[in-house]
Amino acid sequence: MDEVLKVWENLGYYSRARHMHAAAGEIVGHLNGRFPPSAQDLQRLPGIGTYTASAVMSFAFGDSVPTVDGNFKRVLSRLFAIRESIEKGSIRRLIHAIAAELVPPGDSSGFNQGLMDLGATLCMPRRPSCGNCPLQDLCLAFQRGIQETLPVKSKRPPLPHRVMTAAVVRDARRRLLVVQRPFRGLLGGLWKFPGGERKPRESLEQALERSVRDELGVSIEAQEAIASVSHTFTHFRMTLHAWQCVLTAGSPSALGCMDWQWITWEGLSLGAFSRADRKVMEALV
User: Fold this and answer.
1) Which of 44, 119, 219, 283 is the most buried (most CB within 10 A)?
2) How far is it, in rounded angstroms, from Cα 78 to Cα 89?
3) What is the mean pLDDT of the chain?
């Protein structure tokens, strides 16, 4: 798993790497190395949802199933002048049902790729190139002059902001203390500098010392701020504050993490770290 995460480093959506590894294990260990024969069977594997299963079965095996991605939804919402939010469950089901009716038997791959490419190149979110579109005569949104108002999407609230802390701790041999995140959750399985989220009414130093104690069972003293790194995830924004720290009491133990180790500067390049932690490393150079 560590090797897979290292190859995946900086690509984001690390759960996909973990699911891919788990799915490969299922195929080898329980299916005698045979790939599932249908989209329904494929969805029984870890991390495989409706879209991924349909895409694999269409593009790899030619099954007559639609691959409804964001581009696909936009094209159909304009072709059929769908004025409700495409994020509503009922509208998602409607679009998928329309797509299933349209996909031609025996040529799902060409059809699916064509609609996806149409959305990526002509039927774009803003200023669609209707004059060059081969489906112009069929498009109800174009006929009604509402193509630039579709698709309708629900308004999303502003992303919340989380303040995180990271401790840069060295031992007598100048090795750095790092911990491995739990496999479940954001960035699961990746390595990082110890630390965690600041709670209300905590100072950065208090948050750092408390989170490292919860994570490793040791006491540290925050001495000097090193860097502040900003990063945006799908569901929140983060500012990571890294501090130079010293270990004052205790020996590390994996209490709130999967594992921990003292690692040399050269060894940092071998582990899988998030982009934010890599930015902290850049500040240490």
Assistant:
1) 119
2) 18
3) 93
